[in-house]
Amino acid sequence: MHSRRDVLAGLGAVAVGGLSATTATAQTDGSYPHADAKPAGATIEFDEAWLESYQPLLRTDLLEVTPTSLYGFRARSEGEATDVAVFFAHYPTQRGVTNRDSHYLDREPFYVFVDSETGEIDSVAYSAYHWLANVEQRPPTYSSETGEHPTALVVTNWHHYVLDSSYWVFDDSRRDFLEIRDLQSVHSPHLEDGSTAWLDNGWADTLRVGAVLDPWIMQDAPDWWQDDIGRFSVEALARRAYLAASRTPGINIAGAGQTDLQ
Predict the structure, then answer these.
(1) Is 227 a member of any domain?
(2) Is the distance from CB of 8 to CB of 203 less than 8 angstroms?
(3) Rg for the chain, CA atoms, rounded
(4) Within a domain: 53
(5) CA 243 to CA 253: how far, in whole Å?
(6) Closest among 176, 181, 158 to 246, alpha carbons compared
(7) pLDDT tens profile 216-249
(8) pLDDT of residue 70
(9) Is 107 a member of any domain?
(10) Residues in a beta bridge with 179
(11) Residue stretches of the chain with pLDDT short of 70
(12) What are the C-alpha distances in Å from 48 to residues 23, 55, 112, 216?
């Protein structure tokens, strides 16, 4: 099984007819651009009780590899009308159909934008197909004792999300919530104990700068991929090519048959 970086490079080259993806070289002194992406006036905190009020309720019982936890934090800004519950579901592996779409470690984003004054869910932005973003103003939700939770099906093998409410309406047998851990503890260049942080494991080269510490940009950004050719990402272009090809009857590339993207 390949590392995520190997797989991403290979898929990008295949999808664009042999054009190799170029990636930024990760810094070793901790000065990643990601670390400086938090906008002025914004605060990031691990507000566990607040996060539990808005965490997505995910259907995972059909998966071969289930998420270990949700990593998250609360983002607030004086210049924004919403607070953001930033979540990444963490998986030990992604087992695709072939080695090319399989890799160790998988992290799938799901952001909940909450009206700062009313506390109501304003919208959600989530990985609708291999880090391609979809924004929904009125997501289906499930009400619990702790709060209001967007509901989604996690697609088998590839772990992107499809918003769905039917399962929660008709089945009471599985309404467990994933454990929430502090995203700040892993979204840093180097951890104090010397262990490998997410940014040291290929994330710095592939993640859109600002997508985590300035989550409001994901209300308009098309994907979580880092641009590597001008204002475009080879990886994102590859995924859009897969989606376009999968609109042909009988073709379903890497889970493209299940997506909210039009």
Answers:
(1) yes
(2) no
(3) 18
(4) yes
(5) 7
(6) 158
(7) 999 999 999 998 877 789 889 988 998 999 988 8
(8) 93
(9) yes
(10) none
(11) 1-32, 93-105, 167-176, 188-196, 201
(12) 34, 10, 14, 20
